[in-house]
Amino acid sequence: MLQLNFIRENKDLVIERLQVKNFKQAEDSITRIIDLDNTRRELQKQLDQNKATQNAIAKEIGMLFKQGNKELAEQKKIETTTLKTTEKELTEKHSDIEVEIRNLLLSIPNLPHISVPLGKGEEDNEVVKVVGDIPTLHAGAVPHWDLCKKYDIVDFDLGNKITGAGFPVYKGKGAKLQRALINFFLQEGEQDGYLEVQPPLMVNEASALATGQLPDKEAQMYVITLDNYYMIPTAEVPVTNIFRDVIVDKKDFPIKRCAYSQCFRREAGSYGKDVRGLNRLHQFDKVEIVCIDSPEHSYQQLEEMKQHVGRLLDKLGLPYRILRLCGGDISFTSALTFDFEVYSAAQERWLEVSSVSNFESYQANRLKVRYKDDNGKTQLCHTLNGSALALPRVVAALLENNQTPDGIKIPECLQKFTGFDMIK
Predict the structure, then answer these.
(1) Burial of 169 (0-12, 13-18, 19+ CB in 10 A)
(2) Backbone phi and psi for residue 258, each to the nearest 5 degrees, phi listed first
């Protein structure tokens, strides 16, 4: 979340930048926060004065008892009782205002980076790079959901029977292809300096709040109501929370982690052709990369993370493009996001397979992940993450783009993990 002092000192700038994200309540919310903070500060002054008066009277009562003036001492005690009642009332008001300020701060999105383009939705995103040629398919080419059925590698009907729509069952070479991609992505992450971790698939409310899934994305998350746990929508949540309430050592920057996990998303409101097959699932596999660094180096890390994702797609031989997300499409918590989309030849459309984002200090302020600068002053870190990669649409594009009349070719970089070079 945004820092209160920054909001106070940069009110007009904050409102202006929030409007880039089309945050309609920007002026009202920011003005309300500052007004509440002014009230809170005034209450704090009254509390401080009240406490000082109580301390002074307490000393006076002691002196009066020593002097044998019990009657006046008892009168002073009554005065102290009145002050304590006032203190309790002031404390309750102060606490209520602090809660309201925090709730308002949690409802305000991160400020977009100056390079984020204006726009209302995905149609206004900026294409910054296109890599690779669109493949030409043979005359009998079909979409991946037909290929999955033809070669019996992903069973959507069986998943629907066991659980429901969006929970496919991977079979035979389809399951091995999944495992191969996971191993390939993790190996590439390790070679680029990311330490692999295996996090829990459920997190508590504090963890979901710390990375910004709550309260913004609550409707998209599966909740274990009995224990108040949340199924993770991405490994970003548990991996970043490893550093919650931690003061990290600056010499360890950049702190780089990668993790494979299954991800769970309700995808409420999704419908139509965009959800067919592997295009949009409720449970899917993904390898995530997370980085924690100092503010002065975080955008260098963002560029390196983009390069890492690009290398994965290059090795898989998939044509892709990189988009800079506009203010209307960028996430609640992100300052700057680049999406990677692969081209799905049989569907003749681009499919998102990765988002690489810098959250600057927004998540770190919720997480309280900090470091000491060269002057020994405690500062907030910057946090970043990226999908490297999400599997379903990568698999969809691989199946469609590499289909031949004789079967589906497996990219060379995966063959040592699959143990086969064709699905047929």
Answers:
(1) middle
(2) -135, 150
pLDDT-flagged residues of the chain (< 70): 268-273
Query: Which pLDDT tens digit goes with each residue over 245-292?
Result: 999 999 999 999 999 999 999 976 555 557 799 999 999 999 999 999
Q: In what order do the strands lie in the sheet with 407-409?
A: 403-404, 407-409, 422-423
Alpha helices in 155-297 (DSSP H): 156-162, 173-191, 205-210, 236-241
Start-to-end CA distance of the chain, whole Å, equals 51
| 3-class secondary structure, 124 | helix
**CATH class of domain segment(s) 4-106:** mainly alpha
In the chain, domain spans:
4-106, 122-423
pLDDT at 268: 62
Q: The pTM is what?
A: 0.93
CATH number of this structure's domain 122-423, picked from the four choices 3.30.870.10, 3.30.930.10, 3.30.499.10, 3.40.50.12280: 3.30.930.10
Question: Phi then psi for 80, rounded to 5 degrees?
Answer: -65, -40
User: Is 363 in contact with 210 (CB distance < 8 Å)?
Assistant: yes
Q: What is the DSSP string of 330-356?
A: S-SS-SEEEEEEEEETTTTEEEEEEEE
What confidence score (pLDDT) does residue 269 get? 54
